[in-house]
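Deliverable D5.2: sample structural annotation.
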Amino acid sequence: MTPLTEIGECLISTKRRDYLFRPSFAAMARIGSPEEIVRAFYDINHDSVTPLLSRAYEAYGSIPAWLIEHVNKPQFAVKAISAAISVIQACCEDDCSELTGELVPSRSRTGALVWRSGSLSFEKILLVAQSLITHGVIGKAKTRQLQRNEGKEASTEFFAIEYINSARTHFGMTREEAERLTMTEFTMLINSKYPPEKGFTRDEYDAVMDEDDRKWQEMIDKQVR
């Protein structure tokens, strides 16, 4: 397997096997509801451990082993580790708990969770998840913002289906092909069809989306008949 790292794919190998991760629109939808996808993005990028490790590095020039051992416990970043595991698993077609480990109920504390670690450290799990969800939700290709709420406040929801439908109408893709796109890949395709230098304005985007809506309504009408 050869991952296309430019669009967000990555490959992690163990002694047992290779794991391919693809942050596609379908994978993002597997994370949960539109609100849960955005929450996962926030939790992964706003954990309480990373700033602590950064301050330790600035102070000591390296991260002390005792600190790594201390923070490698889910009670210090339970939301981050939970979201990261969810994102990584959603982006892999196979069970990858060998890598991520899993959160299990604590035997000593009611309602608490204990991280049963896999082969990846907390830091690596977080880095992989951050990369995957960024390629899946925001994208890492430069282009003008392609969303209905351009110019408005950041959305609290991410609707993967809107991008899947848009890819199908813009590029003549099947549903399966569109679902496999990452946001980075989708943005690259938009860049090719609507080069930034040609000025893809909000009015032009609205016109394109109106056309999308018309085509989808026609498809729905045909299926109903």
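Annotation notes: Residues 5-138 form one domain. The CA atoms of residues 163 and 174 lie 13 Å apart.
The annotation will be released with the project's public dataset once the embargo ends.
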